[in-house]
């Protein structure tokens, strides 16, 4: 027997939850599924938990648009729902005078994206604000923040279910096909006929898309995996009150210092290109972390870092290719009625989740 549902959302990470919430609040009958036994077990819970301002991304890109809009939506949502967060601010630091021009370029890119609250600080300014830093200058971003990502995900799940959505964990999409104008998706061997399918499976989005017979293979982009490890101090606390970021590096934002809501510091992520999903943190990488961190915090104690966790970022570009964008792919791109694929939703995906959900709803509503 074939079960029929209105809207199936595959993937209960932060973006899938935001999409399910938005569609349910819009009156859609939503079923949200994930193969894991809990929500948000992959990229959504293996990141820096930072609310990004929207600084680095190319003007007009999906990342720029959704990060700036999503940041504003996220702060409002957290305030309305009493979800723990803090507008803590961050410093993007130039570790020597040669990098000062990079700060000017970053500020110009941010302004083009509508982020107009950055302030350039010199060495003396930094000495009074964060005396532990040794830097030639920095950009201060007051709209950068931190968030309890698990609290956010629980809140969005609660909103979705209060609006009538159903969540099914330990449920895997194992295939599908197009028939009679509707999509049929197999969930653990049970055929589900769907008016709409949103593929928000994160690292698994490529497998879901390839498993649906009739989706043109040439519309499924290549996937690259960037592993990022995090380290923490073995003991003690850092002498900083806000986030510290170096100027960006290829594939990521450099080994930065973030604080959680309890004030504990995390360092990372670095960038390791890989071809498999592996969450082991190599303790030997601590030496590289020490070297990177000491460029802006020379007071980091020797041999003080211990492995914490790592995440895998699904990217649409690989080593040396430059930064990739979000890909929100509707029927106009792949020709499959009722299907929306979300590819390459990495950082700033958490910040952008509510805005991405609005974009998905617009595609679904157009149908």
Automatic annotation (TrEMBL):
Pfam families membership: DAO
Keyword Coiled coil: no
Coiled coil stretches, renumbered: none
Gene3D superfamilies: D-Amino Acid Oxidase, subunit A, domain 2, FAD/NAD(P)-binding domain
SUPFAM superfamilies assigned: FAD/NAD(P)-binding domain (SSF51905)
Alphabetical UniProt keywords: FAD, Flavoprotein, Oxidoreductase
Cofactor(s) this protein cannot do without: FAD
Domain of life per record: Bacteria
Domain FAD dependent oxidoreductase residue range list: 6-362
InterPro entries according to UniProt: FAD-dep_OxRdtase, FAD/NAD-bd_sf
Family per similarity comment: Belongs to the L2HGDH family.
Protein's name according to its UniProt entry: NAD(P)/FAD-dependent oxidoreductase
Organism: Williamsia marianensis
């Amino acid at each position: 027997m074939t079960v029929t549902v209105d809207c199936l959302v595959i993937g209960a990470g932060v973006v899938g939850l935001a999409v399910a919430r938005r569609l349910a609040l819009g009156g859609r009958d939503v079923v949200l599924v994930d193969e894991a036994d809990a929500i948000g077990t992959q990229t959504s819970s293996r990141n820096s938990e930072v609310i990004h301002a929207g600084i680095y991304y190319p003007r007009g890109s999906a990342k720029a648009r959704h990060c700036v809009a999503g940041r504003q939506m996220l702060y409002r949502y957290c305030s309305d729902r009493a979800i723990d967060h803090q507008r803590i601010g961050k410093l993007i630091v130039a570790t020597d005078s040669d990098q000062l021009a990079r700060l000017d370029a970053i500020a110009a890119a941010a302004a083009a994206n509508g982020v107009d609250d950055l302030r350039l600080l010199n060495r003396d300014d930094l000495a009074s604000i964060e005396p532990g830093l040794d830097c030639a200058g920095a950009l201060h971003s007051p709209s950068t923040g931190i968030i309890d990502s698990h609290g956010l995900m629980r809140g969005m799940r609660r909103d979705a279910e209060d609006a009538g959505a159903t969540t099914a964990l330990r449920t895997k999409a194992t295939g599908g096909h197009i028939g009679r104008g509707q999509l049929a998706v197999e969930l653990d061997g049970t055929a589900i006929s769907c008016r709409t399918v949103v593929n928000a499976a994160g690292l698994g989005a490529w497998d879901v898309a390839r498993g649906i017979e009739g989706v043109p293979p040439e519309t499924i982009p290549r996937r690259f995996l960037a592993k990022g490890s995090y380290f923490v101090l073995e003991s003690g606390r850092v002498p900083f009150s806000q986030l510290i970021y170096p100027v960006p590096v290829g594939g990521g934002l450099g080994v930065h210092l973030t604080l959680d809501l309890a004030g504990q510091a995390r360092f990372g992520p670095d960038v390791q290109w890989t071809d498999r999903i592996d969450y082991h943190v190599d303790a030997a990488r601590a030496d590289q972390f020490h070297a990177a961190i000491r460029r802006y915090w020379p007071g980091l104690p020797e041999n003080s870092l211990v492995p914490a966790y790592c995440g895998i970022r699904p990217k649409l570009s690989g080593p040396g290719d430059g930064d990739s964008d979000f890909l929100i792919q509707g029927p106009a791109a792949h020709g499959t009625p009722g299907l929306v694929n979300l590819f390459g939703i990495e950082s700033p995906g958490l910040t952008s989740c509510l805005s991405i959900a609005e974009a998905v709803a617009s595609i679904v509503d157009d149908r």
